[in-house]
Design a protein that fits this description.
The chain has 182 residues and is α/β, with parallel strands linked by helices. It has 3 helices and 6 strands. 48% of the residues lie in helices and 26% in strands. Strands 1-2-3-4-5-6 form a 6-stranded mixed sheet, with helices on both faces. Helix 3 links the parallel strand 4 and strand 5. The chain is elongated, with a radius of gyration of 27 Å.
Length: 182
């Protein structure tokens, strides 16, 4: 079948137009995927805020009744030297107790959650020098714990809190548990 030069040019023109349409559709798909990613990220952030809000009343009770904390502040943010620190719940007591607790709240904790809390505890006195003489402890509060991860957090000297019957409570700690002061 013989094809003339004009027919080849016409086919090439259609191919170019088709490619432009494909490129346009791909750009639109990329834009939609980016938008969906933003929405999913926003939903995750809202769920995290929901979990933190769910934990706060229970954690306040635990921090006051069990540990004698006088000041309990949710969502504490600090900046120093261009660096930032965000703490889900900060609790402290002066007087004879002279102790502070940093609480990190997670819906589904992972190993990185333990590392994240330990990093917060290590940086704490840099951002809050007014608490430099206090004993400092960490509590990792979560909705859904695996037993292995819970045991790892306890081995690291962190308190573990979990939700039970809609209320956060401190998990049972082994008789030999020693919270790690930071």
């Amino acid at each position: 079948m013989a094809t003339t030069a004009d027919e080849v040019w016409a086919l090439l023109g259609k191919l170019i137009e088709s490619q432009k349409e494909t490129d346009h559709r791909m750009q639109e798909t990329d834009r939609q995927i980016k938008e969906l990613g933003k929405q999913i990220g926003g939903l995750g952030k809202k769920f995290g805020s929901f979990t933190e809000g769910l934990a706060l009343p229970s954690m306040e009770r635990i921090l006051q009744e069990r540990f004698g904390m006088e000041v309990i502040s949710p969502s504490v943010r600090a900046s120093k030297g261009g660096q930032h620190l965000e703490i889900d719940v900060l609790a402290y007591a002066n007087s004879d107790i002279n102790t502070a607790y940093v609480v990190e709240v997670k819906s589904h904790p992972r190993e990185e959650s333990i590392t994240q809390l330990k990093n917060l505890l290590q940086k704490f006195r840099i951002f809050f020098p007014e608490h430099k003489d206090k004993k400092l402890y960490g509590i990792l509060a979560a909705v859904d714990w695996s037993d292995d991860l819970k045991q790892q957090a306890l081995r690291e000297g962190l308190y573990v809190a979990r939700i039970h019957d809609g209320v956060f409570e401190l998990a049972e700690t082994p008789a030999d548990f020693q919270p790690k002061p930071w």
